[in-house]
Write a structure and sequence with these properties.
Elements: E1 7-9, E2 15-16, E3 32-34, E4 69-70, H1 75-80, E5 85-86, E6 90-95, H2 101-114, E7 119-123, H3 128-137, E8 145-149, H4 153-163, E9 167-171, H5 188-205, E10 208-214, E11 233-239, E12 245-253, E13 261-267, E14 270-273, H6 277-282, E15 292-299, E16 302-314, E17 322-325, H7 329-343, E18 350-356, H8 368-380, E19 388-390, E20 393-394, E21 400-401, H9 406-415, E22 420-424, E23 436-440, H10 443-451
Parallel strand pairs: 6-10, 6-11, 7-8, 7-9, 9-10, 17-18, 19-22, 22-23
Antiparallel strand pairs: 1-2, 1-3, 4-5, 11-12, 12-13, 13-14, 15-16, 16-18, 20-21
Helix pairs in contact: 7-8, 7-10
The structure holds thymidine-5'-diphosphate and magnesium ion (MG).
Magnesium ion binds near residues 101, 102, 125 and 171.
Amino acid sequence: MAKELNFTCSACGTSFGKWSGQCDACKEWNTITQSTALASGPKGKSLGAMRGKTIPLTDLDTQEKEPPRTYSGVGELDRVLGGGLVKASALLVGGDPGIGKSTLLLQAAARFARNGLKVIYISGEESNAQVQMRARRLGLEKSPVMLASETNLRDILTTLEAEKPDLAIIDSIQTMWADNVDSAPGSVSQVRSSAHELTSFAKRNGMAVVMVGHVTKDGSIAGPRVVEHMVDTVLYFQGERGHQYRILRAVKNRFGPADEIGVFEMTGKGLVEVKNPSALFLSERGKPAPGSVVFCGIEGSRPMLCEIQALVAPSPHSQPRRSVVGWDSGRLAMILAVLESRCGVPFTGLDVYLNVAGGLRISEPAADLAVAAALVSAREDAALPAEAVIFGEISLSGALRPVVQTENRLKEAQKLGFTTAIVPQQAKQPAVAGLQMRHADDLAGFVEDVFGAR
Ligand code: TYD
Ligand code: MG
């Protein structure tokens, strides 16, 4: 008989046959707990022995029309949703505690209510008075949103069935308690079955449900990862401590593109959408300084400019430090190796710090060339021209490869007042009026061109 996988990691949701101290998948410690079985049905009978009902089958040539969508009117939110909220869908909004999930969803609830949806907001964490206080702070106290403070899932589902809202917001899934599951709220089994009940209720009743999930490091509470597979759309709300802006990122979306982002700023009166994120991320940039380079990345469907900063200093340690914020450390090691072996720019005995300003996280290899430029600029103590934007992928041979959406990136740079672009050579280079292009074939040529013969 196959071993039952009833031990689950509360951080990443991976299931195991036995308990262990560290999760093999996500390497978190003390996150694996035993989950009780969800299945309730006649026990002791194999599925093959008892007959169920036949299910209707259909063909691939879809007869159903596009599901109706409602726009919130907040461009940044609608884009991340893939073009508005879809009827009868389930969404998960994950994020660290205190990042602004409740604020975002209360503001969204008010918008959707104003656009004609019947919206119910259920808070399992805060009292009605607390939510009302937040609504007053946001100037939304007159919005037609219905409110309740409750954690009992059975009562919530009964209420939703009677009220028939178009949208229900559940804040948060970790506080919900399904009385048919024999474990504490926040445990893997409770979170899973609550999310499952809510999702299937939403599908059956043509309601959209948004569930809030706190990202937790503590094994006693299940994180949002354990329900990601059940829902149609997974959004993460992210931000950096000490920064006012927040990024809403779609990591999964059955109704639109994943990887789309929306940028907001947390103000004293709630979240305000940022229509021009490039300007925001570059706004703190001072005069041209060694180690500072402007990169144009693609986030979802949009180009976005940001600053990459590097600092290189003699190391007092036998093993110099390599410290990265906002980029992949393996990729940094690779670029340092290419600079050293293909361009003769060694970093031995030097500490290297790399930072993507504003707390952004970049995962594109298109940033390679900008990172290399920042590293060499810091090492040589030579600033790059302030009005230049740099991007391109570096291969291990030191050759430069053109990147996708070059034209969009160039246009964004031109729009924000940049006059020079340094990019890899490519067969058909797009030209953007007002932008002077400098090309490089390989990294050695680039270093020589920009920093002079060495
Ligand atoms: P909240 O939405 O409660 O976070 P979450 O639900 O993700 O735990 O937001 C909490 C933070 O946001 C809190 O530190 C206060 C701040 N905040 C503002 O700065 N401006 C506002 O208008 C509101 C409502 C909150
Ligand atoms: Mg909250």
